[in-house]
Design brief:
heterotrimer, A mainly alpha, B alpha/beta, C mainly alpha, A: mainly alpha, MetI-like fold, 2 domains, two-stranded antiparallel sheet, 13 helices, 4 strands, about 65% helix, B: alpha/beta, D-Maltodextrin-Binding Protein, domain 2, 10-stranded mixed sheet, 10 strands, about 15% strand, globular, disordered N terminus
């Protein structure tokens, strides 16, 4: 009816972001492409160079760094090569710790995010700030304070013994559990905030409809809510798991640094007495390749889900 | 036009030097120089001092090699690191005449193996690395490295070890009585096996936390630097610093002039300032180690002068510096350390 | 109505979550008033560390470092959030295109590279291209590594918003700009706020990369306090942290009040 007066809308039925795609992505390409990808490519090149004694590289191509990672030639390098388990087991240990921490963050972070998203709108921001305020205090200080709390004769153990719940102090410091607790503590908001952003959008009418059809609460959560907020959960898991893999503050301070984690192993190659830059670069390349493959598989799966 | 350009260039140059005259850029360890001393130097000379900090010799080396050389005038590497930086060509040189206080350096610290005749460095502080034991937990004789590597039952599982390859392997070698840069396979194997066996008695690895674990009681014994142990004692830890009969590690931190120092003259002024006994003593009173300068005694705090950590028994064992092995040999020690921490 | 929003135990878990987050801070605050200089022994109540922090020989250094940290965090979070919003629009709203997976990998790259590798590589890169290290280099590095932390919550949010809202606006003759500012951005807001907050705390916390790419004499709070913390926190660091906490609480309360007043005047 108004068609005669007004021209048709310019972009009927679409949202029209396609033509702007390139300008929208340029800032990302420039910032990460120049200031991270280029330096990292340089590092990838370093992993194929000869190490200079005590740090630095010599521009001679070699696979020595990768050989060192995968093959064991004995303490003196004169035995026939067998598969080197040292570094693989360090990777496995780091993955395990990061995985447990991510799961713990998810189990606590999802309910927290849900709780925040179901508050009155004015209160939500306050809750979000409450979650992030502790992070104004430096990670190192938080970790040291956490260690103080869980020491053998620290406040936690004293309280538990005082309440009669324990006879002896629970040894937490210098255990794997302490490392997992430290990682959980370090990265919790990185799980809560993305999930919150997704849940906040959730249309509760869906739950109500399911409830009207006699679905139980937990069934609704599992069958309807979780698939809807999946992008938030995936984002949270990435933001917790990947940084946890390379973390070394929590393992060093809370775990007693008795065994290497990926983070401390790489750190040692650059800042430690071994000064083996190509090897450090090679470990980083292997780690990045591994995580990238998982991420790409996840992105592809998500894309397939979208098309369905 | 040409004259104009030349004048502009000359002016820019002059402006550059005038600015440079007032500055000094120091690359230093964390918490190793009292702020009051820096203020004193600034007041005396009008030079503005900026201090950047690092937390290990190797971290400093990595940062300089990755591109920070040319930004700083002086740094404070440990003994073996002076030698390494010398090999890497990261050091600038000076002559004794350029430092009026050069003669105040304790003669025994002038001709040191890591910088013969002191062409690049001056002594900063020196001390020893051994271990301390909580005397409430263990009362027997502690002057043997067996406390760490084959400990009595009271200490098992309560030992902190420095998270530092050089110190752990050097003390391990002293315990076994083998040279520090051995190429003998049997000796290296023995060191490897001894450390792997000892690890089951250790609670943690930590260098920065070495003092705190003794004060808190989280560890009953721990490898530690002498001044650090004195601080632990001052904070109430019931610890005694050991002088093990097998020997212990000596170290010396040195202030070096860096290559391409932007303010070389000011750097030399600062080094000269630090060789003044009163100023060297101020660092010692702060860090609880020992100065490498003569005539500091009148300026020292009583507690430092008489502390057992700074006064090894006269008839006791001697300390040795950590040796910088050559590349081929170092490979074995790197492998042993990785074995220990895998 | 309330039934489907409420799950038993979620409140308890939220409170537990806050307890875990805040318990170590209680330690920090209490020990900032400790007269003794060790974290493990209590030497009586004292304000000496606050006096030390606010008037001591290092007070100017700490103040400058705190100022740098906060300004860098604000700038880096703002820039990276803006970049992330643009990237999310292109990635979620512009269909499939060549190089989409590669771009996705690129956005996540800062997460994947271990910090020490980023630190060394970036410093080498800066010195190769002749960029003098200082405030600017820190800012560039921070914007870069904050992007994925801002992007992931924003993208997660955006992918949950159906296109119909925007389409409806466009059908009603809104320009693309109007549709974005008036419809889409308000819908995206929770994601944008989440991303901004994460980028902010990541920037505020960073030590390793900052320590490498900063110039001589340039400090942020983490680089200024790191060493003394590693050797067992001294109470003056506890005092600084408590001051920082107080500042953050002040900011939050202020923004809450401003919000409240804003809402009141509107209604």
């Amino acid at each position: 009816m108004a068609g005669g007066v007004l021209p048709p809308p310019s972009n009927r039925g679409g949202t029209g972001w396609g033509p702007l795609r390139v300008p929208l992505l340029i800032p990302t390409w420039v910032m990460i492409g120049i200031f991270l990808l280029l330096p990292v490519l340089l590092m990838a090149v370093y992993s194929f160079l000869t190490k200079e004694f005590r740090g630095g590289v010599i521009w001679d191509f070699t696979l020595a760094a990768y050989d060192q990672f995968f093959f064991d030639r004995g303490l003196f390098g004169d035995e026939p090569p067998v598969i080197e388990w040292t570094y693989i087991s360090i990777f496995w240990r780091s993955i395990w710790q990061a995985g447990v921490a991510t799961l713990a963050c998810l189990l606590v972070g999802f309910p927290t995010a849900w709780f925040i998203a179901t508050r009155a709108p004015a209160q939500r921001t306050v809750w979000l700030f409450l979650i992030t305020i502790p992070y104004w205090v430096n990670l190192l200080i938080r970790t040291v304070s956490l260690k103080f709390l869980i020491r053998d004769n620290g406040p936690l153990n004293e309280a538990l013994i005082g309440l009669g719940l324990l006879d002896h102090p629970l040894p937490l410091v210098n255990t794997n559990l302490a490392v997992q607790l430290g990682l959980f503590y370090s990265y919790l908001p990185f799980m809560v905030l993305p999930i919150y952003a997704a849940v906040e959008r959730y249309n509760f009418a869906l739950s109500e409809a399911a409830s009207d059809l006699y679905a139980g609460r937990w069934t609704i959560l599992r069958e309807i809510v979780l698939p809807m907020v999946r992008p938030g959960i995936v984002a949270g898991c990435i933001l917790v798991f990947v940084p946890s893999l390379g973390a070394f503050l929590a393992p060093d301070l809370l775990g007693g640094a008795k065994t290497y984690m990926i983070g401390s192993l790489i750190d040692e190659q650059f800042k430690g007495s071994q000064g083996n830059w190509p090897f450090g670069a090679a470990i980083a390349v292997i780690l990045m390749t591994m995580v990238l493959m998982v991420l790409m598989a996840q992105a592809r799966a998500a894309l397939k889900g979208e098309r369905k | 036009m040409k004259t104009y350009l030349t004048t502009a260039a000359a002016l820019a140059l002059m402006a550059g030097t005038a600015q440079a005259e007032g500055k000094l850029s120091v690359y230093h360890w964390f918490e190793y120089m009292p702020q009051e001393l820096v203020d004193k130097f600034e007041a005396e000379t009008g030079i503005e001092v900026t201090i950047d900090t690092y937390d290990s010799n190797e971290a400093m080396l990595a940062a300089l090699k990755a591109g920070k050389i040319g930004q700083y005038d002086v740094a404070v590497p440990g003994d073996y690191m002076v030698a390494i930086m010398g090999h890497e060509g990261l050091l600038g040189s000076f002559t004794p005449e350029e430092l009026p206080n050069f003669a105040k350096i304790d003669p025994k610290w002038v001709d040191v193996p890591f910088d013969p005749a002191r062409k690049h460095s001056i002594p900063y502080q020196w001390g020893s690395t051994a271990f301390s034991v909580n005397r409430d937990v263990y009362q027997g004789d502690i002057n043997t490295l067996a406390m760490i590597f084959d400990p009595p039952d009271e200490l098992k599982g309560k030992i902190n070890v420095l998270d530092s390859q050089g110190e752990v392997l050097a003390l391990g070698s002293l315990y076994l009585g083998i040279p520090q840069c051995s190429t003998d396979k049997a000796q290296l194997k023995a060191l490897n096996d001894m450390l792997l066996n000892a690890k089951q008695y250790w609670a943690s690895f930590g260098s920065d936390t070495a003092k705190e674990v003794l004060v808190s009681g989280d560890a009953a014994a721990g490898m530690i630097y002498n001044g650090f142990s004195a601080k632990a004692r001052a904070e109430g830890a019931k610890v005694e610093y050991a002088y093990p009969k097998e020997g212990y590690v000596l170290w010396m931190d040195n202030m070096v002039l860096l290559k391409d120092a932007p303010n070389r003259e000011n750097a030399l002024k600062f080094m000269n300032f630090l060789l003044e006994p009163e100023n060297a003593a101020a660092v010692t009173n702060y860090a609880a180690y020992t100065a490498g300068v003569m005539g500091v005694e009148p300026f020292l705090d009583e507690a430092i002068k008489t502390s057992p950590e700074n006064n090894p028994p006269a008839d006791g064992p001697t300390g040795v510096f950590i040796e910088a092995c050559d590349e081929a040999t170092q490979k074995y020690y790197d492998a042993i350390w990785t074995n220990l921490k895998k | 109505m309330k039934g489907v929003r409420h799950y038993p135990g979620f409140l308890i878990l939220t409170l537990g979550c806050l307890l875990v987050l805040y318990a170590p801070l209680v330690v920090v605050t209490i020990y900032s008033f400790n007269d003794s200089s060790s974290i493990t022994s209590w030497g009586g109540f004292s304000l000496r560390w606050y006096v030390d922090v606010l008037t001591g020989p290092e007070s100017a250094r700490f103040a400058a470092a705190a100022w740098n940290s906060i300004t860098i965090a604000v700038l880096a979070a703002t820039a990276s959030t803006a970049i992330a919003v643009a990237a999310a629009l292109a990635m979620i709203r512009s269909g499939r295109f060549r190089g989409k997976s590669a771009t996705y990998a690129l956005i996540n790259l800062p997460l994947l590279v271990p910090e020490i590798v980023t630190a060394v590589a970036t410093l080498i890169f800066f010195s190769v291209i002749g960029l003098t290290t200082g405030y600017l280099t820190i800012l560039i590095a921070h914007v870069t590594f904050c992007i994925p932390f801002a992007y992931l919550p924003i993208a997660a949010r955006l992918s949950g918003i159906e296109e119909v809202y925007e389409q409806a606006a466009r059908d009603l003759y809104a320009t693309r700009t109007q549709a974005f500012w008036l419809i889409l951005l308000p819908l995206m807001m929770p994601g944008v706020v989440s991303g901004y907050l994460l980028a902010f705390i990541i920037s505020l916390d960073d030590f390793i990369i900052t320590n490498f790419v900063k110039g001589a004499g340039m400090e942020t709070l983490p680089t200024a306090i790191f060493g003394s913390v590693k050797q067992g926190i001294k109470p003056n660091i506890m005092a600084i942290s408590t001051v920082m906490l107080a500042v953050s609480v002040l900011f939050v309360s202020l923004s809450y009040l401003v919000n409240r007043i804003g809402q009141k005047t509107r209604t």
